[in-house]
Fold each of these.
Amino acid sequence: MSFYRDFNDKTAIATWNSQERKPYETITVTRLSPAVGAEISGVDLGKDVSDAQFAEIRRAIDENLAVIFRDQKLGREQHKRFALRFGGNLHRHELAASKLAEGTTYDPEFLSWRTGPESRFTAGDGWHPDVSCDPEPIFVSLLHVTKTPPLGGDTAFANSYLAYESLSEPFKAFLSGLTAIHDGAEGWSASYGAQPEDGKSFPASEHPVVVTHPRTGRKFLYVNRSFTTHIVQLTRKESDAVLAELFRHVEAQLPFQTRIHWTPGSLLVWDNWATQHHAVWDYYPHERWGDRVSVVVPGQRPTA
Ligand code: SIN
């Protein structure tokens, strides 16, 4: 008698959890779930973070993918300054001046939103990494939420390493070498009714379906429902079927996820390559305000 190979997810998470995690000396890190997410305390991001602390924060992100710092009083300049510690440049989002950002002060290096009773959409209300349609996609995002609803408004995160590692070996072999198109029109026109400026189009890029992380050397699944339109090497029907299964695989695997609960003034920092997230809009008509800065590393494109 043979069995389905449904134990792959258990062995993947067991391997993830058996990684060596050295103790931290300058920060306190409390994990939020086995797969993804941690809370960091003992740091005031409004002040200068020492090199030793920053190195441990960077390691905590590699190990946990999304980390939250509570009660951070951050002005825009302090927020940007901390973001620049991750190297690279600050990202300029196509929608920084759009309807999404209405009610906020325009700054091309911020994507800000004020979701409330008049809102018809909010940022990130669907599974995605930020702006995977760029040729050099955002590497790290830093979101400061200053107003939270009385209940709800969590951000769910999924670990894309585990999404890849839990696939069967023949399916991994099939995906290896495939590339997919990620299109901003799919993410933004469909979700927010946004249109590019006259004579321009939103960015679209071709990326490997399985990407090797430049910091960890580990492979992760890199397709998402918000931006990925099709796999280049397959027929439309094949691509639709494979993508539907891969999207479902990321979104339905609760053991690979966590929900991060916000308190006003928290700063959440995530590895935007090896995760997907979903801002859960379950608080309408209450308000939730977010200000996001993101980091792009010039020349760093996803590679297999
Ligand atoms: C986003 O950056 O996609 C939104 C995340 C959130 O509001 O929690």
Note: The chain has a mean pLDDT of 95.
Amino acid sequence: MSAPWHVAPSGPLVGELAVNGDKSVSHRALLIGALTDGPVEVEGWGDSADTRATLEAVRALGVRVDDHGHGRLTVHGVGLGGLKPPVGAIDVRNAGTLMRLLSGICAMQPAGAFTLDGDASIRTRPMERVAQPLRAMGAEVETTEGRPPVTVTAGRPLAGIEHVLPVASAQVKSAILLAGLRATGPTTVVEPQATRDHTERMLRAAGARVTGSGGRVTLEPAERLRLDRIEVPGDISSAAFLIVAATLIPESRIFLRGIGMGAGRTGILDVLERMGGRVAVFNRRTTDAGEPVADLEVAHAELTASSIRGDEVPALVDELPILALAACCARGKTRVRDAGELRVKESDRLESVRDALWRIGGHIEVEDDGWFIRGVPVRLRGGTVDPHGDHRVAMLGAIAGLYSEEGVTITDPGAIDVSFPGFRALIEAATAVRR
Ligand code: S3P
């Protein structure tokens, strides 16, 4: 348990702020990089506890990764079927993306037994949603009553399938597509709502045949993957905390450069625009590995409530905690629906976010698959937030502290390292000069 962090009320945030490399793309740079023939240069890699778990996992599977520091890595890919079975279990720690994607990758290896395990939170997360489609392809996958630890016995011949996902999930889609790389015949995944497409973009950039988008994607088996360079965009899920902070605190104006604008990730910008937020998007471009990026300028704005439901949920699923804070400080009532997936994230986020905001003066209730929030457009009172071991709830507490009357104490801020280890230093530097 880390020492508590008290975040005092803050004046405006002004100037350029830098966020870490995108977590989803950073995991994939290592996992897909490991499957290529030859070295891949990675730039802007987001160093965090989660992505370190992936770095260590691929090393444990016999892949050399040179860490040059400052987000630069060289991943010496071993080819599609070149991973070595590890000695003992792979420890994914808190990283659900690693757990799911690696299950698909292990299933298509030519031989060996791969056991994947992690921390107490990972051991509560559903794995049958990955195991079932992999078994339908011919893989041998054993879960522990539907959860980790998971053991994949490789070497079974795989056949491509058409799988209709019951719940929208980029992690499950990616696991199936990655297994399909060495299956016979095409693999198709149909999603109820389109989710982030980083796996498809990176595989395409590496020469795989991936067609379709926005809800139905098909991958043909591949002979080999080649990729020279992966530039990892800034993480919009980390930027979201700063975007909401600058929106809430009067006279703020911040710039965020090179932020990932991938399909399935920018829902927060659409919702904030509806609420009256002022986020300008400019300098749009696409990286070598096919990821759209842009620069953002965010200015303070008065917010009005706007409900969130249905198809737009997957594109902002990780931003719902910080959007709940925005809704608490907006004028009017917000209903968030169709967000039952929040119950199986790093914590039960429907409960942990309600607990955090309620303790510091927010008017928020949990409903079946979402929240009901009565917004009041003033600073929250403040108080103490228990992040329940969840990085996004801890960062939500910190941003609430900046926009509070009395400040917020986060009881265990160490959880933040899971995605954004530089967050605290950034917040302290951005507020120190201006208070
Ligand atoms: C992720 C997909 C999402 C997201 C997670 C990262 C990914 O999870 O919540 O933080 O990198 O594919 P689900 O696929 O479970 O929705």
Note: The chain has two domains: 5-21+233-430, 23-231.
